[in-house]
Amino acid sequence: MIKAQRGGKLWLLSVLSAGLVLGAQTRTEDRKPITIERAPQRVIKDQYPSFSAVAINPDENMLVVTDENLFQILEYDRRENTPAQARLSEPKRVISGPNTRAEMMCGVYIDPVTKEIYVLNNDTQNWLPVFSRDARGNATPSRYLATPHGTFGIAVDEEKQQMYMTVQHQNSIVVYPKQAAGEEKPLRTIAGSDTQLEDPHGIALDLKNRLIFVSNFGNAQISPPGSSGGRRSADTYGKFEPPSITVYPLDASGNVKPLRVIEGPKTRLNWPSQMAFHEPRQELFVANDADDSILVFRAGDQGDVAPIRAIKGPTTGIKNPPGIALDIKNGEVSVASMGTHAVLFFPVTADGDVKPLRIIRGGPANQVALNIGNPGAVGYDTKRDQILVPN
Amino acid sequence: MHDVRYDAVHDEIVVPVPYAQAILTFRGGADGQEAPIRIIQGPKTGAIGSRLDVDPIHNEIFTYTGNTVTVYPREANGDVAPIRVIRGPDTQLKRPYGIAVDPINDILVIGLNSNFGSDEPITVEDTESLEKGAILIFNRTDSGNVKPRGVIRGPKSGIIRINQMQLYPQKKLIVGAMPGVIDSMEPDSAFLGVWSYDDNGDIPPKWKIPANDRTKLKKPFGVVLNPKNKEVIISDMRNQGVLVFSVPEVF
Questions:
Q1: A80: pLDDT confidence band, cut at 50, 70 and 90?
Q2: Among 3.90.1010.20, 2.40.50.140, 2.130.10.10, 1.10.287.130, what is the CATH number of A53-388?
């Protein structure tokens, strides 16, 4: 009986509520949103930088690193070596903020003459901002270029004053005048079904032999013959191919076939990211992200070849390295180790599970980075009570 | 990857890979460099959008390509064609980006970026002058050139573009991440909004979690619900992190 009375009251309330709701539905345009102004219960966030790309100017001992986590460009003295007991090394300067047009940065270049810093954005901003030697804080770039969406790697031919970039989203390479700015268009583009550009990332130039090296993750997009490619082309479909390094003439343009391809299980390529070319040694250094390794190939390698050297193993401290730079003057290779908040330095001849010469840490030692990058979505595994975050 | 869905009925994780135009399904609890248990990819499949959702009851996966919504069998493996598509001028589909399906109430919701998301550079001036985004509400089984049953769009809606969405069938709610002007790193207008399936027109959200210093939200890109704990879980691009809010009033 009591239950029935309660039920009756509830039913009446429901009817009244329904009426109110129906009344509200007739004027939903006038609805006042209920603003939920409260702090989150929990926040999952890495408070330290995720180093994504690295560049060196040995003449001024200038080491510039991009940080995809806190959206910073950091300059260190390349000779810095974070003491084991220190929490981190403080950078000499930091460029960061909404005026910078720099966010998900994955490529960086230092002008050898002016010491200007060129930065490439990937998935969230379509700009290449350039910063002066003195820029710091929330600086406005001294100039910026509107780039295609999804640029990743940058390499510069200083003699011809041309800069080369990979475009992940369009499976292309674009070449601009080095001083390009604003809405300037590329001088030339390498793209199309014959190029075998498959999710291109890193790019390096051999100016002596006039070659372009490009690293590819292997996410191929098959387009009709004659198509300019790109994932929005009509009739495009996808195919998983092995990761590769494709090689083109330095002056290539259009839908050109690679001169040769390094690809296959012996290569150990697995998400090959930034690359650097050692011209005197004629060696190609590859930051091999998903394999936690640095691979070195001969300049003339082709097909399914093993690297001549590989820096890999627990002693190296390398974890998910997207960035790499060569300091030919001092005989060092520097590695942006995104998984450990660190830049690691090795001799260019290093091989195997070797200890780095120096470490510059942006966070505490032995603290693994969260590696959350541009989290476009989130999922929840109800069976395991786990939050899933795709990058 | 710009989407991830956990299929609790089959204990599977489903993700789109737009660079390789593929839909990958992993076992729940997959770890490390583990191979997917199924791949949808190939010439019949065609191009795949950046986002998707899974209907574990009717065994379908919803995604899009260009201005076309495509539906694939959930258990498909290999090069399979969509089993139905929604496209045409009556659909109002223009740069679909968010997508969510409710298999209980038979609702399909599409978030539009409208003129956003092009491969061409877009400036702040462009985004202010171009057509704004919207939420289109369809029936789950719609096919062909159909009109949406509801369109939420306009200045009162606050929608500039819509990223990931989730539906809450029990209360017929649409929960969408609205990250604001694409070219602005920390846009003032960003929020997480909750609308009703019955909303149609220039309708403000019923609830909103705005981006500000108090909520710590900056640029919400993704959202998922945990009804058990009455939580809204938001991935935030500018925070490069995940924020968990307790919002019992929504559930």
A1: very high
A2: 2.130.10.10
